[in-house]
Specification:
The protein is an all-alpha fold. It contains three helices and no strands.
Length: 89
């Protein structure tokens, strides 16, 4: 159970840090939200919801590979979101 707990924490921390980075970008540039930054935050929240629902899925045959796949998806989603934050101007 500790692995599931840690995976949930990782998802929360990684996506929370990405949302925080968006807020920091907003404060350092325009000082207010834009359509682009709101879209990034919405995408991060949607990713969080999808990944947590996959972690909580009960009908999984091979749990070990299932959780490894979720970890890979988290890394890919985080890299895509970070790339989008870096493109903001």
């Amino acid at each position: 159970m500790a692995n599931i707990k840690n995976l949930k924490k990782d998802i929360n921390f990684v996506l929370g840090d990405i949302i925080e980075a968006v807020y920091l970008f907003e404060m350092s540039t325009t000082g207010k939200p834009t359509e682009e930054t709101n879209a990034l935050i919405d995408e991060a929240i949607a990713t969080f919801d999808v990944l947590i629902s996959k972690v909580n899925a009960k009908n999984v045959e091979n749990k070990k590979s299932h959780f490894k796949q979720i970890n890979v998806e988290l890394e890919q989603a985080a890299n895509q979101l970070i790339a989008k934050i870096n493109k903001l101007q």
